[in-house]
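Re: that backbone. Tokens:
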């Protein structure tokens, strides 16, 4: 049986405690707000969230940040229209109502924490196709088959409970086969890691296999392996079609910020070596220039189309794969500090709560 997340337990306990405290204030709140029951009072307050906060795009990591954005949105809307709840909060006599709203907002954040604390991928960025020619797969956030192709259920992207682009993500959604209504499913992390190792072997690159081996050990040693970002191999430039222009060796996406970073394993033997024994210096220089330009054009293309900066590891780097993976693993820790909030507006409305 999976061990319950202590953070979830703590949030549920806090939600129950706040709810109990709110009920003690309701009788006074009904008078101050001209509402007659709990349902109408909560609907009055709760209906404002979509008006005051861009819930589809804002990343909110603390209750205070949620309250602050709610207030800021209310202030902005009040500049062009009369806002009833603002007038009630500005009335210094409505002390119970102010406390109730403050607790309601904190409780709302805790109830919807998993939806609010992470950035949602844009619609065009919510699918990834990766893999070599005869073994490529699609990773979607909310995959569904539309009788012709795979797509995301856009209405559900915001509601998923897993962290985007992590080991937990792929175990939950599986991988989509191109052009058919079938998926490659995983039941546990070991299943996915074995699949990843097999994908690395298909590249026939000792370096990519070595990096994947180190990634597997990294995931296995983590206290929260399902939250580790995926090391996505062989990102296909042109999506799911068999023909494609480029493949990027590895991709990592930060599950909170959606920032991407690519890694290209670039030994001279496969990325720069010149062929032919009887070429002139002019011909050799021309071939070397073409090889170099191809690498530059590939990196530029991934950045232009997908906003992926690409780090290259050359022969000198690849002499020490442990150090190469150390540089990659920096991006496997997606932690981000909570945003600071402006205390002025907070104090104006809820400073005495």
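Recovered sequence:
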């Amino acid at each position: 049986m999976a061990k319950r997340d202590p953070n979830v337990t703590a949030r549920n306990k806090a939600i129950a405690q706040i709810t109990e405290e709110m009920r003690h204030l309701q009788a006074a709140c009904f008078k101050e707000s001209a509402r007659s029951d709990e349902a109408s009072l909560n609907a009055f307050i709760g209906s404002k969230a979509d008006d005051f906060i861009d819930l589809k795009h804002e990343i909110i990591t603390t209750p205070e940040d949620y309250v602050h954005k709610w207030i800021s949105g209310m202030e902005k809307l009040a500049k062009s229209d009369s806002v009833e709840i603002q007038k009630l909060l500005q009335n210094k006599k409505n002390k119970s109502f102010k406390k109730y709203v403050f607790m309601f907002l904190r409780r709302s954040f805790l109830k919807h924490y998993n939806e609010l604390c992470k950035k949602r991928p844009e619609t065009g960025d919510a699918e990834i196709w990766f893999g070599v020619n005869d073994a490529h797969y699609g990773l979607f956030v909310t995959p569904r088959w539309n009788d012709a192709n795979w797509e995301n259920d856009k209405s559900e992207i915001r509601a998923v409970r897993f962290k985007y682009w992590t080991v937990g993500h792929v175990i939950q959604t599986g991988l989509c086969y191109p052009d058919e209504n079938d998926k490659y499913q995983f039941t546990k992390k070991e299943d996915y890691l074995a699949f990843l190792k097999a994908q690395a072997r298909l590249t026939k690159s000792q370096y990519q296999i070595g990096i994947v081996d180190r990634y597997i050990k990294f995931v296995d040693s983590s206290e929260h392996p399902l939250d580790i970002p995926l090391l996505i191999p062989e990102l296909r430039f042109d999506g799911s079609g068999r023909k494609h222009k480029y493949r990027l060796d590895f991709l990592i996406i930060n599950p909170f910020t959606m920032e991407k970073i690519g890694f290209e394993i670039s030994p001279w033997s496969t990325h720069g070596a010149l062929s032919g024994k009887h070429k002139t210096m002019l011909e050799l220089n021309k071939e070397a220039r073409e090889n170099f330009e191809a690498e530059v054009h590939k990196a530029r293309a991934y950045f232009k189309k997908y906003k992926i900066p690409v780090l290259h590891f050359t022969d000198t780097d690849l002499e020490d794969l442990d150090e190469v993976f150390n540089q990659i693993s920096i991006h496997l820790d997606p932690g981000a500090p909570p945003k600071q909030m402006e205390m002025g507006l907070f104090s104006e409305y809820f400073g005495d709560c």
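Confidence is low (pLDDT under 50) at residues 337-341. The two ends are 41 Å apart (CA to CA).
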